[in-house]
Design a protein that fits this description.
By secondary structure, the chain is an alpha/beta fold. It has two domains: 103 residues, no CATH class; 324 residues, Alpha/Beta hydrolase fold, catalytic domain (Rossmann fold), CATH 3.40.50.1820. The strands form three sheets. The protein has a nine-stranded mixed beta sheet with strand order 1-2-3-5-4-6-7-13-14, sandwiched between helices. β1 and β2 form a beta hairpin. The longest helix is centred in the N-terminal third of the chain and has 25 residues. The protein is globular and about 70 Å long. The protein starts with a helix and ends in a 22-residue tail after the last helix.
Length: 514
């Protein structure tokens, strides 16, 4: 009912917002009425009313070009995989300069797993733009659940993990291997996905960079963590889950509405947002167009929110913030074939780990992301690093000046150091180890994490090529390409192994793109 009331209120506000925009333009610069007394204040006031009342749609990434070694490189977005709840989006780079083209082809490939926690993947626009200067970049672009028809089925946390695994395999099939970077919420499912791949003996990514995520939400709990821990599971199910109203493709789907998440974001810092809007009004009156445009860009992104499928949202609350299954070693995940597997981070051996935290992060507290080092006990200390960003809040670790000047150089150097397969220090997982992945296992304490200033041991040039990924089953292959959710595919097909498909060859590329 609340969702219906919200949509009714939004529909009623729409004509008033349009009227406010028209009045603002009528008294704005360039208008014959702009010379009247108080015209600037009238225009500024109505512009603010318009922005407070308008509906915010999903923004575009809008990355047209980037600088690579001083040369301008054109960017073209391509959707390479389109699944019911997510698209794998690639940012392809083009140049006519042979030297720059050679540089682009030799740069590492990075899969950025964007959060599914209320905002669109475009929240990481600055992250993507910066990473494109030295990497081939893919990103997960999660869809608004209210746009997904009920016929596509439900979306669970297990489906999220299965999607991440499929995206990793897709990039590996194209380039041999990749680096994975997760920001905030996806750190937990990404660690689970890579753990499951390692337990099966599949090729795992070269590195995983985890930034500001709740690996262990019990450490330095924030207001967000306390809310999730102090309320019962039933409270969330009864108070924040609603059905999508008429007028949307996903009509009838149970979701956690984006407008509730947005309200929660604003409620964390109401004074800061009120001050920001008042400053915007004053900037318009003064004619400070640069500051006003910066405000518009930020809130165009901040106010654009999406709905999350109820099953995914509730399972995340229970698994990550209430039962802490990842750190307790009790997390079981249903894979693409319908089989249940235990998440064992201690099985990860050849993926380097970098964790990043913000000193002033008020969403993922200090130590929550660093906890990944205590779980990944088989990763050698020289292949693990932790970096705390001084003076940075949650958004500062992946966007803005601190991200560009402090975090990105660290991430770039870490990826470059480990952009080659690691030599195994011991034998691959035995069949018994894989079978034990379904047993309860509490992770042991990890070795000390290498300090930020520590130099990594260089990987020998003669390091052997890593074993190819485990063969994909026909069921998994269908799940990776079919619009039907992975959970539905698993139910439709038997769990036994079927004929494996031949490895996909990389498509030939034109000489001017990378």
């Amino acid at each position: 009912m609340l969702y219906h009331l919200y949509e009714a209120q939004r529909s009623l506000m729409e004509p008033f917002a349009d009227f406010a925009r028209a009045v603002s333009k009528l008294y704005g610069n360039g208008s014959m009425f702009s010379q009247l007394p108080m015209a600037q204040r009238v225009a500024a006031g109505y512009d603010l009313i318009y922005r407070l009342g308008k509906d915010y749609e999903k923004p575009e990434f809008g990355i047209q070009s980037v600088q690579v070694d001083g040369a301008e490189v054109v960017i073209h977005e391509i959707v390479e995989v389109d699944k019911p709840f997510c698209q794998l989006r690639r940012f392809k780079r083009y140049t006519d300069d042979p030297e720059v083209l050679n540089t682009l082809k030799n740069q590492p490939v990075v899969l950025i797993v964007a959060p599914l926690s209320g905002h669109y993947a475009t929240l990481l626009r600055d992250t993507v733009r910066t990473m494109l200067q030295g990497h081939k970049v893919y990103i997960t672009d999660w869809k608004n659940a209210r746009t997904v028809p009920l016929s596509e089925g439900e979306f669970h946390l297990d489906d999220y993990i299965n999607d991440v695994e499929q995206f990793i395999r897709h990039v590996q099939a194209e380039y041999g291997n990749c680096h994975v970077m997760s920001v905030c919420q996806p750190t937990v499912p990404v660690l689970a996905a890579i753990s499951l791949m390692a337990s099966r003996g599949e090729t795992t990514p070269l590195t995983m960079t985890m930034m500001g995520g709740p690996i262990d939400a019990r450490r330095s709990p924030t207001a967000v963590n306390n809310l999730a821990m102090n309320k019962s599971f039933e409270w969330f199910e009864n108070n924040v889950i609603y059905r999508v109203p008429q007028g949307f493709p996903g009509e009838g789907r149970r979701v956690y509405p984006g407008f509730l998440q947005h309200t929660g974001f604003v409620a964390m810092n109401p004074d800061r947002h009120a001050t920001s809007h008042y400053d915007y009004f004053k900037d318009l009156v003064k004619g400070d167009d640069a500051s006003a445009e910066a405000h518009r860009k930020f809130y165009d992104e901040y106010n654009a929110v999406l709905d999350m499928d109820a099953d995914y949202y509730l399972e995340t609350i229970r698994t990550v913030f209430q039962e802490f299954k990842l750190v307790d070693g009790t997390w079981d995940v249903r894979n693409e074939d319908g089989a249940i597997e235990r998440v064992r981070p201690q099985d990860i051996r050849t993926t380097a780990l970098l964790t990043v935290e913000g000193e002033l992060d008020d969403i993922s507290g200090s130590g929550q992301t660093r906890a990944a080092h205590d779980l990944c006990t088989q990763i050698p200390a020289e292949h693990r690093e932790h970096f705390e960003v001084q003076g940075a809040g949650h958004y500062g670790i992946f966007s803005g000046r601190r991200w560009r000047d402090m975090v990105y150089p660290k991430v770039r150097a870490f990826i470059a150091t480990h952009d080659a397969p690691q030599k195994r220090d011991d034998t691959p997982l035995a069949a018994e180890d894989v079978r034990r992945s379904n047993a309860v296992a509490t992770p042991a304490r990890a070795e000390p994490v290498a300090p930020v200033s520590a130099k990594h041991v260089a990987v020998p040039a003669s390091a052997p090529t890593r074993a190819p990924a485990a063969p994909r089953t026909a069921v998994a292959r269908k799940a990776a390409t079919s619009p039907t959710p992975a959970r539905k595919a698993a139910k439709a097909a038997p769990a036994e192994t079927v004929a494996a498909a031949p490895a996909r060859k990389s498509a030939p590329r034109r000489a001017t793109k990378a």
